[in-house]
Specification:
This protein is α+β, with helices and mostly antiparallel strands. It has 6 helices and 7 strands. A 7-stranded antiparallel β-sheet has the order 2-1-5-6-7-4-3, sandwiched between helices.
């Protein structure tokens, strides 16, 4: 998280909504000699302060959870990109990198295996709905034996959210020069990532400060 408080004023609710909309992040737990990290899709649980996810059974984090529940952090990255000082249209600026990042801290635990299929169906339904009008894929279409074999390879987990921290570094310290930079990001960037970053920069609340 960026230490400058001007980048950390976004409401926790908005940051959580941002993370849930992304639906993909890195779950991290402490371990010796280095932290363990898994890249996972996720979904808000039936309890609003919980996130549902699954891990491959052979994942080191899953093996750890077979013994204990553990503190964890879920990191979700948003649009990001390099910002050239030439784009501001004013003198004496420096290069920077704009980005959005949300960190959710809490407790990770393994769920009972009989909860796995219902969770996977909810996860699939959530993302399949975004592909409409494509007919939604359902686990019921699979051969039962094949489905059960695949289910044995993964484990369901729950992550209880206890704290939300975020950085929305979007040139909030600048005013019109931020908008000029957003135009340049959109025009010179490639793909939806930089287009989304430009939109966030335009929407950011600016001030009259001139330093990055």
């Amino acid at each position: 998280m960026h230490p400058n408080p001007i980048y950390r004023q976004t409401e926790a609710e908005r940051s959580l909504e941002f993370a849930l909309a992304a639906g993909f992040g890195q779950i991290m737990v402490s371990a010796d000699p280095v932290p363990l990290v898994a890249h996972i899709p996720f979904l808000q649980g039936q309890q609003g302060d919980e996130i549902e996810l699954h891990l491959v059974r052979s994942n080191p984090i899953a093996r750890l959870l077979q013994k204990i529940q553990t503190p964890a952090k879920l990191s979700v990255s948003g649009p990001h990109g390099y910002i050239s000082p030439d784009w501001y249209g004013v003198k004496d600026q420096v290069p920077t990198w704009n980005y959005v990042a949300v960190h959710l801290s809490g407790t990770l635990r393994m769920l009972k295996h009989d909860q796995l299929l219902a969770f996977l169906d909810r996860l699939s339904a959530h993302f399949e709905a975004q592909l409409a009008p494509k007919p939604a894929r359902k686990s019921s279409k699979m051969t039962p034996e094949v489905l059960q074999k695949m289910l044995r390879q993964i484990v369901p987990c729950s992550f209880k959210i206890e704290d939300i921290q975020s950085t929305w570094k979007l040139n909030q310290k600048k005013d019109m020069s931020r908008l000029a930079a957003a135009d340049a990001v959109e025009q010179t960037g490639v793909g939806s990532e930089t287009i989304a970053l430009a939109a966030l920069m335009r929407a950011a609340e600016g001030s009259n400060h001139s330093h990055d």
